[in-house]
Design brief:
It contains 4 helices and 10 strands. The strands form 2 sheets. A 6-stranded mixed β-sheet has the order 2-3-1-8-4-6, with helices on one face. Strand 2 and strand 3 form a beta hairpin. The C terminus is likely disordered.
Length: 191
């Protein structure tokens, strides 16, 4: 499972991938005062088919999931008790992250609160982080599957608090260039 784990403020140096060594997290230092990291399955406590750093809440032991989330938050210097987590629905739904919120249906979270950790699970879909680079800090993290992309999840994530100058995705009226996606997306979107 690929995961976007982010907070609206904090340090976060870039991390290089070392060939042959599986990292626990891949950190991205984008514009703005954000910590954005993509986790791997390395370094957690889950066992069997969910080994090791499983952050999803489906069929794994809930205590192991909670412990894995604490491990991930601790590595990033975030408060696991404030962690907001979505439950993917393959939709364009983006919600404001609330401290401690768990399993709210939707495919994106956003926050302008300093230190608000957010977790978006993506599995085989695409994790997307959208943040302001000027003005008041605001960050959106998105689960972008083909259905969500065709329904405008990226544009929905950009519209939550960003101005046109801060966020602009060229393409269709939903804000995403559908011509870059496969035929199944064109069919599902009515194009």
């Amino acid at each position: 499972t690929r995961v976007v784990k982010a907070t609206t403020y904090g340090p976060g140096p870039c991390q290089r991938i070392i060939p042959g060594v599986a990292p626990r997290m891949i950190r991205w230092q984008g514009p703005g005062p954000y910590v954005v990291a993509f986790t791997t399955r390395v370094g957690g406590v889950s066992e069997g088919p969910y080994a090791s750093l499983n952050l999803g809440a489906r069929e794994d032991d809930p205590d192991r999931i909670a412990a894995n989330r604490v491990i991930a938050c601790d590595e990033l210097g975030l408060d696991a008790g404030r962690l907001a987590v979505n439950r993917q629905r393959h939709s364009p739904s983006v919600h404001r992250a609330e401290p401690g919120q768990d399993d709210r249906p939707g495919d994106g979270l956003w926050s302008d609160r300093p230190g608000q950790p957010m977790l978006v699970l993506t599995a085989d879909c695409v994790p997307v982080a959208v943040g302001t680079s000027a003005g008041s800090p605001c960050l959106a993290v998105l689960h972008a599957g083909w259905r969500g992309l065709s329904e405008g999840i990226v544009a929905a994530g950009g519209r939550v608090r960003f101005t046109e100058a801060e966020f602009n995705v060229p393409g269709d009226p939903n804000g995403f260039a559908l011509s870059r996606l496969g035929d199944e997306v064109h069919v599902s979107s009515g194009d």
